[in-house]
Design brief:
The structure holds two protein chains of two kinds. Chain A is α+β, with helices and mostly antiparallel strands. Helices cover about 50% and strands about 10% of the residues of chain A. In chain A, strands 1-3-4-5-2 form a five-stranded mixed β-sheet. A two-stranded antiparallel ribbon of chain A has the order 6-7. Chain B has twelve helices and eight strands.
């Protein structure tokens, strides 16, 4: 969709107005990252990267495109990618289930940037859940391949190297993500303390939620396209199964609901970029709505493939597993509705 | 994407608020759920829309709709008139463009849609109301329409008739703009779950002159395509907005039987959050469809129907759930005193089922999305 400049606007003096098209720079990113993932995150690569969920080759390719430095002002010449641009990249990543720690490294780079620190050497991840001092970090996202981490330890936000060997801490999991149990190195750098530490962590988490929601929309949209193609081809009772309304209507609802998620993700990213007071609320809404939806869509897509969808042979299972597993890195996705409630400023005891 | 609204919009909102405060009679507000009609207000609002919303910028349209909703006003019944005015602008005769269109846009004419019949709803092209030439260049109409909403206030009915029974159903239809005061035209109220807003209309030897015809003889389906193509879906529907707003207000102080705040209850919090999310998604889908139309951006054929589908389903889902949340007093009819939130919860629960049906049932919207957007094989027989 091209960005159009309101050719029929008559009123003079109108400066900014809603625009639901992608901007030129978003389209460029969509194209460059889309084609990179299409070439280097094929389903064969995704499968061969299991169970660890990491392709070193793809990660190097992404490095050539500036991941994760592009998210940092310190290392991008002062003009870092906006979250509105990053969600476009995340959607392409999700579409191909790319086996790289894109989201965590980008979010960590954005967080370090808030302290005027360049991205850490190697792979730096974010501990999504608060950590207890002295305890290992369980099921750390990207932990099996990460060299360092930014974590909320007690009431301190710290940057630290990770001790020991990542792959030894690796835990096999449903989504074939590089989750691992890791411990922090002895020496840590305290970035912030007290309320500020929690606020910085919360902000990073909001970034992650919006990016994960974008990735899930990308993944579910791809699963949906695969399914639409399948129901046009697969015949039963002498007709393509897509002819049956019970099949067609489920796919119609799914694409419409996915449109809602896509728009909500973009609105949340826009709100965060523009420092809107609605940003936390919209980030939670995007996450809550998308995680529930994409899990359902992925399950429906598997179902509409019939028996073949349940086999490891078919790619739809790759999407089904990740749609369920990805959000669990943070915890029960349904809890996010309670955060929405709090961010709606409801009276009563919130989270 | 860009979601911000300009400072201009704040001024515009203020303008809408003062306009409504000046022109909307308080007496009507008390009867809001009956969808009351006041000729002077209708004229005033038509002129305001013509002056300020002629290019239908989505920000302005949304702002206008929200202000209207917050003022407790419902303009849904005025939408068909604008739809038909725009249809005539596109395909009307010189006389219709010169005479009828300004009267429609100026609030002098109020148009009701005469499409549905006792035996045809979503399959609108199956209409059987007959129009036959009277031998002197005019027409005579006989038949019956259902759900001719607003006909009790309307000046004209946009009437879909059958003029040819020897051809496939879509090729034998003709549309007329019939004055409601025509001899032989009878309007009878149809009671529904909410207000008296809709009717049966009966046509017994109704004489209609040929210059009331819209489009070609037997070309009614082309007219319908233009008229329905103008519908963007979800437009002008502000009730989901209001029911969620009322629920969030209610929640600030409501207490359970033990005196605890209802919002201390996580289940209540989750449901209010879900309602707010449904509202946000509804707004985005509607705004996108409106944005594409206003800016002549080639729009995905699924966007308009998708907005209608999501909005009406969400409205029903949210209304039904918030109804429960209110507790025992939710069942008190909105017409009575002692209701919660001026009867909004009771009204919306009773109102929402028809919205899923009217203007093309959800099943038709899903068919359109499946066929035109996803390219799935057409399931309906033609």
């Amino acid at each position: 969709m091209n960005r159009l400049r309101y050719p029929n606007r008559k009123r003079i003096g109108w400066t900014i107005a809603m625009d639901f098209g992608l901007t030129d720079d978003q389209l460029d990113l969509q194209k460059s990252f889309g084609s990179l993932f299409a070439s280097y995150a094929t389903s064969m690569v995704v499968r061969e990267s299991e169970p660890l969920g990491f392709s070193a080759q793809l990660w190097h390719r992404l490095g050539d495109l500036g991941v994760p430095e592009l998210a940092s002002a310190a290392s991008s010449g002062g003009s870092p990618a906006t979250l509105s641009q990053l969600v476009v990249i995340a959607a392409e990543y999700g579409r191909r289930l790319a086996p790289v720690p894109l989201l965590e490294t980008v979010v960590a780079a954005r967080l370090l940037d808030r302290f005027d620190r360049p991205p850490a050497e190697g792979i730096c991840t974010l501990a999504l859940r608060p950590v207890t001092a002295g305890d290992p970090i369980e099921l750390l996202a990207a932990g099996a391949i990460a060299d360092s981490v930014v974590a909320l330890v007690g009431d301190e936000l710290v940057f630290a190297e990770l001790a020991g060997d990542g792959e030894q801490g690796f835990v096999r999991n449903l989504g074939a993500s590089p989750l691992a149990n890791r411990t922090l190195a002895e020496e840590v750098t305290v970035l912030a303390q007290g309320t500020a530490a929690k606020e910085y962590h919360q902000r990073a988490l909001d970034d992650w939620k919006v990016l994960l929601a974008a990735a899930l929309v990308g993944a579910a949209t791809e699963a949906h396209s695969m399914t639409v193609a399948y129901v046009k081809e697969r015949r039963a009772f002498n007709v393509p199964i897509g002819w049956f309304q019970t099949v067609a209507h489920r796919l119609a609802d799914a694409i419409n609901d996915l449109d809602g998620a896509y728009l909500l993700v973009h609105k949340a990213a826009w709100a965060i970029d523009s420092g809107s007071t609605d940003a936390p609320k919209l980030a939670s809404m995007a996450y809550a709505y998308t995680t529930r939806l994409t899990e359902r869509v992925a399950a429906e897509c598997l179902h509409l493939h019939g028996g073949i969808g349940y086999t490891m042979e078919h790619d739809i299972q790759l999407y089904f597993r990740r749609a369920k597993a990805w959000p669990l890195a943070l915890g029960d996705p349904r809890d996010e509705f309670l955060r929405v409630a709090t961010r709606l400023k409801l009276s009563g005891a919130g989270v | 994407m860009e979601f911000s609204t300009s400072t201009h919009l704040d001024q515009f909102r203020q303008q809408v608020r003062s306009f409504l405060a000046e022109t909307y009679p308080d007496e009507l507000r008390a009867r809001r759920f009956e969808r009351p009609h006041d000729k002077d207000f209708y004229k005033a609002v038509s002129r305001f829309q013509q002056e300020h919303l002629a290019d239908r910028h989505p920000d302005e349209v949304s702002a206008f709709n929200e202000e209207v909703a917050q003022a407790g006003i419902d303009l849904l019944t005025y939408i068909p008139t604008r739809l038909i005015a725009e249809t005539l602008q596109e395909i009307g005769t010189a006389r219709q463009k010169a005479e009828d269109v300004p009267r429609m846009l100026g609030g002098e004419y109020l148009v009701a849609l005469g499409l549905t019949e006792p035996d045809s709803g979503s399959d609108v092209a199956a209409a059987r109301t007959r129009a036959v030439p009277d031998g002197h260049g005019g027409w005579v109409i006989n038949g019956q329409k259902m759900y001719t909403s607003n006909a009790q206030h309307a000046t004209h009915i946009f009437l879909l008739t059958r003029t040819n029974t020897d051809v496939p159903k879509r090729q034998g239809l003709t549309v007329f703009l019939v004055p409601v005061d025509s001899p032989g035209l009878e309007v009878r109220p149809l009671r529904t779950l909410t207000y008296h807003g809709t009717n049966m209309t009966y046509y017994t030897d109704v004489p209609v002159s040929d210059d009331c015809r819209i489009g070609e003889v037997d070309g009614g389906w082309d007219v319908m395509r233009v008229a329905l193509g103008r519908e963007q879906g979800g437009e002008g529907s502000t009730d989901i907005h209001e029911v969620v707003r009322q629920a969030l207000l209610w929640a600030q102080t409501a207490r359970d039987d033990e005196g605890r705040l209802r919002t201390d209850n996580a289940v209540v919090r989750e449901r209010l959050a879900r309602a707010a999310v449904d509202l946000e998604v509804t707004n985005l889908l509607i705004q996108r469809a409106a944005w594409a139309s206003a800016n002549n951006i080639p729009k995905d054929p699924g966007w308009g129907p998708g907005a209608k589908l999501f909005e009406t389903e969400a409205y029903a889902r949210v209304s039904a759930d918030l109804f429960d949340l209110i507790g025992p007093a939710a069942v008190i009819p909105f017409e009575e005193s002692g209701t919660v939130a001026q009867g909004w919860f009771n009204y919306c629960f009773r109102d929402s089922p028809q919205r899923i049906i009217a203007g093309g049932a959800s099943e038709v919207m899903r068919d359109i999305i499946a066929e035109r957007r996803l390219g799935l094989p057409r399931a309906r027989p033609s």
